[in-house]
Design goal:
The protein is α+β, with helices and mostly antiparallel strands. It contains seven helices and twelve strands. It folds into two domains: about 120 residues, Arc Repressor Mutant, subunit A, CATH 1.10.10.10; about 130 residues, Beta Barrel (OB fold (Dihydrolipoamide Acetyltransferase, E2P)). The longest helix is centred in the middle third of the chain and has 28 residues. The two termini are about 35 Å apart. Keywords: Molybdenum, Repeat, Transport.
Length: about 260
């Protein structure tokens, strides 16, 4: 029986990057644009953008350099980081296939397959936003801790967790973590000036995309360092606020709605 290994690159509770997304990255690089790469990979343009945003947020660095404009949606080519990600993925798959082939004879007759050993090790999360960053401050009392995570040079996201959770996760200043925020928890305020609100987080950015359906809209903000934040709002609200690509806007959300994951 032919054995094929499938590698998933991820961190705990963060959407996985597997072969399909790596193939998309390769297709975009080969075709020279995101639109053409999406077609080659059998994805919609929106699905391709979402996947590329997720990869950038996960690895913490841009994997593609893009230029906007044109009927095809603009051009794109791999950054040095993007090249290294693809090369590392291909090497990991080859090495994993070698290990699995070596394991299978040893497991013969045991009722255990190689896939049993690795299944369940990886989880997916329903959180639309997963951004890697570094803890810059922790303010704690006996019950709760506010954790400040820098996800870009001028962008800090605050999470409110229990002090027990902070201790169990081993959170400390300088540690790299991933912050998770579900898109429905993110509110959008148009303009550059942060609105007056009790929400702890108000992240300034620029609208990158606005996808509108019958009643809902997904707004994707560029928040710096080629990272994005997505919000799920009503289509009517998006129309009222005139949220077009390039428009300044702020993403507003409570610290209690931010989860922290560690590697």
């Amino acid at each position: 029986m032919s054995i094929e290994a499938s590698i998933t690159l991820k961190t705990k509770n963060v959407a996985a990057v597997g072969r399909d997304r790596i193939r998309l990255l390769q297709a975009v690089a080969r075709e020279g644009s995101i639109a053409a790469g999406a077609r080659a990979a059998g994805l919609t343009y929106k699905a391709a953008w979402d996947a590329l945003d997720a990869m950038t947020n996960l690895f913490g660095q841009p994997l593609l350099e893009r230029r906007t404009g044109g009927k095809s949606g603009g051009g794109a080519h791999l950054t040095p980081t993007g090249l290294r990600v693809i090369e590392a993925f291909n090497r990991l798959e080859a090495e994993m296939a070698r290990v699995i082939r070596a394991l299978e004879p040893e497991l013969a007759g045991s009722g255990i397959t190689p896939s049993n050993l690795v299944s369940g090790y990886f989880m997916k999360t329903s959180a639309r936003n997963a951004l890697r960053g570094t803890i810059t401050a922790i303010t704690a009392d006996t019950l709760n801790a506010e954790v400040a995570v820098a996800v870009a040079e001028d962008t800090t996201i605050y999470a409110l967790v229990t002090s027990e959770s902070a201790d169990n996760l081993g959170l400390c200043v300088g540690r790299e973590v991933v912050v998770l925020i579900k898109a429905p928890f993110v509110m959008i305020a148009p303009g550059r000036e942060p609105p007056k609100t009790s929400a702890r987080n108000c992240v300034q950015g620029t609208v990158r995309r606005c996808e509108v359906s019958g009643v809902h809209a997904e707004i994707v903000l560029d928040v710096g360092a080629d990272k994005t934040l997505a919000a799920s709002i009503t289509a009517a609200s998006a129309a009222d606020m005139r949220l077009n690509p390039g428009s300044p806007a702020c993403a507003v959300f409570d610290a209690a709605h931010v989860l922290i994951a560690i590697d």
